[in-house]
Amino acid sequence: ILTDVVCILTNVKAQVVTEKNKRKEIIVTDERIDRKTVTLRGDLAEKYGEILRELINEHPVVAFCDVKKSTFQGEFVISTTPTSSVLINPTFEKATELQNWQVSMKAENKDITLMPSKLIREGREVKIDDVINYSTTMKDLYCRFNAQMTSVINKDDPWYYSCKKCYKKVNVENEIANCSICMINDIDYEARYCLKLDVSDGKRYMNATLFD
């Protein structure tokens, strides 16, 4: 069954190219902060991937028409089909409502990319001890816990260089980056944020890593 999805763009991941196809994952949200991943495939990945990437900071409203909804590894996913189309900042009613909501969030100085998602809000609340003793038999893929940051481990160097194509860490020597994932020498790269923290809930301590 095909459907239409109207949402706000929050992030664009690296394009994945294989012998069979091309795909690019787009992270979107709505007024419920219900974040979802939309996978653009084939020509749509190539045509709109870079366009949407350049618009990330504007968080435009995007309509995906005739897309397929399914469940993969327990998660709800959306992907384009050969008949799908993409509209950026359309003017129909639902899109206008989302644009107005986003304007109201900006007026309240709320960053929609930093607000807890519906998935996290509904995640099971746990203790640090539960995370440390995590078992693969646990049913909860997402959980949340309250903790206090005690120190920043890498406060003097919170950056790493990543490949612009796959976003994985690269080795840079004499301003030349080599990506072992893409198997390309002298590839385009950029600095990305990675903060490593010590956190505590008053009883146990653990390390937590935050990516941009």
Keyword list:
OB fold (Dihydrolipoamide Acetyltransferase, E2P); NA-bd_OB-fold; DNA-binding; 212 residues; Replication protein a 70 kDa dna-binding subunit b; 2 domains; DNA binding; alpha+beta; five-stranded mixed barrel
Describe this protein's structure.
With 212 residues, the chain is of the alpha+beta class. It has two domains: 2-108, Beta Barrel (OB fold (Dihydrolipoamide Acetyltransferase, E2P)); 123-211, Nucleic acid-binding proteins (OB fold (Dihydrolipoamide Acetyltransferase, E2P), Beta Barrel), CATH 2.40.50. Helices cover 17% and strands 44% of the residues. Strands 1-2-3-5-4 form a five-stranded mixed barrel. Strands 9, 10, 14 and 15 form a four-stranded antiparallel beta sheet that branches. A hairpin with a 6-residue loop joins strand 2 and strand 3. The longest helix has 15 residues, at 93-107. The two termini are 35 Å apart. InterPro entries: NA-bd_OB-fold.
Percent of sequence in beta strands: 35-45%
- Overall CATH architecture of the largest domain: Beta Barrel
Low-confidence stretches: none
Largest sheet: 5 strands, mixed, barrel
Number of distinct beta strands:
15
| Order of strands, widest sheet | 1-2-3-5-4
Structural class: alpha+beta
Radius of gyration: 20 Å
Task: State mean pLDDT (0 to 100 scale).
Answer: 86
Global outline: globular
CATH class division of the largest domain: Mainly Beta
Q: Count the domains.
A: 2
- The helix count comes to 4
What is the assigned CATH homologous superfamily of the largest domain? Nucleic acid-binding proteins
Distance between the first and last residues' Cα: 35 Å
In sequence order, what are the helices and strands, one letter per element? EEEHEEEHHEHEEEEEEEE
Instruction: Assign the CATH topology of the largest domain.
Output: OB fold (Dihydrolipoamide Acetyltransferase, E2P)
Binned, the helix content reads: 10-25%
InterPro entries: NA-bd_OB-fold (IPR012340)
GO molecular function: DNA binding
Protein name: Replication protein a 70 kDa dna-binding subunit b
Keywords: DNA-binding
